[in-house]
Design a protein that fits this description.
globular
């Protein structure tokens, strides 16, 4: 076990809160265990651990993330994702496999959405030539978490959103009965409506969407 993983386990265990852990576990429908360490404290403790053990090399990152992902406590997965951000300038194409590993293992919205909008989004800004190959793979996947990622990876792109890709994936999955797909479509469109409400309204007018997707898509526009 890498020293940073061992130190995180000890540090979080010493600061565990059983009552808070039960609440956090219930919030995620009892799917994952928790130490019961809230986000601000978790980030502060992780920073202390890194200052003690030193930050892993980029080469070690893959091993560290996988070890953190194997831990039963969900805080460890959060640290893994946040650790990946620190290497943004070092991403290379091998990072794709790590992203996909995190999306498809212990999958739930609390990790997938961060991985999609922050990690995948940043990676594909650095390697735009990889957008189409990854998009074609994930948007046709049987794993709806990869599909969700293909919908929302542009969440922070603002006026750089590729509307052709966005429209394509929405058309493909507009009639999905999967809640997390419907919600992703609505969320992405709602977010993009801050930048281009005209385009969103035009898409909603011509594309039949599930009620949840449509409601979410135009929510901010209606408020305006």
């Amino acid at each position: 076990m890498h020293s940073i993983v061992s130190e995180l386990k000890t540090t979080f265990s010493n600061r565990s809160n059983k009552e808070q852990a039960l609440w956090m576990k219930g919030y995620l429908r009892d799917q994952y265990d928790f130490y019961g360490v809230k986000a601000p404290e978790r980030k502060a403790l992780a920073k202390q651990v890194i200052s003690k053990t030193g930050i892993p090399t980029y080469k070690e990152l893959f091993e560290v993330v996988q070890e953190l992902w194997e831990a039963p406590e969900r805080e460890m997965q959060y640290v893994a994702m946040e650790l990946c951000v620190k290497y943004k300038r070092h991403y290379n194409e091998s990072f794709e496999s790590l992203i996909e590993f995190m999306i498809t293992n212990k999958s739930w919205w609390d990790t997938v959405d961060y991985i999609a909008a922050t990690l995948t989004g940043n990676y594909l800004k650095k390697y735009p030539e990889r957008i189409l190959p990854i998009f074609k793979d994930w948007s046709f996947s049987d794993d709806f978490w990869l599909v969700r990622t293909s919908i929302i990876f542009q969440l922070k792109y603002k006026d750089k959103v590729d509307t052709d890709l966005l429209e394509d994936v929405i058309q493909r999955h507009a009639h999905s009965n999967e809640f997390f797909i419907q919600k992703a479509i609505g969320w992405m469109l709602r977010h993009y409506s801050r930048t281009n409400p005209k385009w969103v309204l035009e898409l909603v007018a011509k594309q039949e969407l599930k009620p949840l997707s449509k409601r979410e898509a135009i929510r901010l526009i209606n408020k305006g």
